[in-house]
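TL;DR need structure tokens for one chain.
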Amino acid sequence: MELSSPSGFDLYALLHLISKRRWLVLGTTLLLFSAVALYTLRQQKVFAASTSVIIDSTAPRVLDSQVQEVSDTGSGAYWYTKEYTETQTRIMTSRAVAERVVHKLGLSRDEDFLGLSRVADPQARQKAMASIDAASLLQGKLAVVPLKDTRIVNIRVEDGDPKRAALLANEVAEAYIDETLGLKLKVSESANRWLEERLSELEQKTKQSEIAVYDFKKDADMLTTSLEDRASIISQRLTTYNGALTDVRTRIAALKARVDAIDSLRQGVDVAKEPDWAEPLTQGLSPAGTIGTLRNRYLTEKAECAALGERYLPGHPKLATCLGKTQVAKQDLIKELDGLVKGARLDLREALGKEHNLENLLDTAKQEAFEVNKRQIEFDRIKREADNNQRLYDLVLKRLKDTELSGMLRTSNARVLDAARPSFAPVRPRVQSNLLLGLLLGLVGGIGLALLLEQLDTSISTQSDVEERLGVPFLGFLPRVALEKNAPDVDRDLYVFRHPKSPAAEACRAIRTNLLFMSPDRPLKTMLVTSSGPREGKSTCAIVTGVAMAQSGSRVVLVDTDMRRPRLHKALGVPNDRGVSSVLAGDASLLLPRASCRRDFVGDEAAQAVGQHAMAVVEPIGRRVHGSHYESGHAPRSGLVQSRASAFHRRKPCNTTFCCAGDG
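>> reply
TL;DR here they are.
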């Protein structure tokens, strides 16, 4: 049964190939399996030990949360933690950690660890020991494997001694913790030195800033009153001056209006003689006032004089007395009005002078305010610098104390979870896996070699080989004939018609049938039997095929074109005085007498075998035509023979098969 995949893989053909070349496959498999087994068993046994280490995100917090560490231990987001873990694994496999272990255990002088225990010469051993880097050798035996989704890391060490492997794994873990503490201490010491230098600088700056503040206060006379108080006082003064100046200017405006009104009333009037101009001015005055009293007195005296003037004549003593009193009252009123005008003008001048003084005071206060503000800006700058220096000094001092305190701690965020223990089961070589791999490699190699040889094999041994490689149809096969030892060739050549019921005879009849059905419309007239070398059965094939064709009723002519070793005449018992060379030379003809077609050219036994049907034989007789032109049965020779034979066929009314036998 044929099993094949869509890609064209023929499982049956592969199994047939393995069965065909089974000894090659078995030998290759055994050879590779033995080589792998020998290599595996000769390898040195290697043992492994692992130490589990937990790497926390933060170290144990002993101090207050306000005391910050100098170096960050890796707390943060996922990617930050991943990078931190990767960094720690690289530190574990670093040369610094390896050198700590080498120095602690003295591995640089350990002959077993360095693999020099088998070196017998002490000098050579010492020389090799000096050339080997123990730290690099330890790094080659060390592997760090982080466990997924955890903070646990396995430190794995492989060595030829299981106890030493466990010891190295534990010491690497301890060296890693010591290395992290050493790095932390180194960073803290470096930070302390830097902070101390900055603290000294800030202390000097702070002192200079304080002295600058004191000098400024001394120069600005700020020992009793601060600039803020001075600014406040000046601000109050400015407010007072502005209020007073506003009041004065309001009063000046009123006084100017009053003086302007008085001047307008007195314009065009003899103020020394007529006090009536001031009547609008005195209307708003109180009657009890001086001007009001004088005015009433004047008006009263004037009215009395008018009344007396009506009763008395001018010059009358009473009228004269009255007029004198009226004149006195008038003069008193005029004098009082002059005083009023002068008072108004004096008040205006006084207000203007007060305005001028207030403006001077206001300008002076503004100048003082500007000066105070300028000094305040300068003082704020000096004070701010002093405050900044003091604040920086306090921060650096606090950080220095925190760093000194945190540097005293010897806590690490890494700790050993499970210490390594010796394991006496070797991890290498893996005997079972290697042997299984060797077996598989042997099978694959054997099958591959068989396939290669099959591809390189160009011989034809099967029906498919004939059809695929030669591109011609397969007619049949002749089985090997079982003959007695030292039996003559004639027995093999005539085996088919001596044993007509044998498998060989049946195979010949099958070949005859295939030949007949190859071209039913145009039956075959000529068939050439040839091979690539001598003694490959050409004569036997030609004889048995000719016998089978003759037995089927066909006329057969056997032409032996083997110029070196002709054999048909021996097998069929006919003379070889005439043959192909005679025909080629023109000494003989292929026109055969009907009566002698069977007996003259075929032996008695052969004639009995073919019965009533004719089978003629033409021998080469090549003794005198052994030139290079006829030695191998080339095309010119065969073509001539075929042309003569064709003439023979045309003269024979019966169906004739023409068989040629020759080497090459």
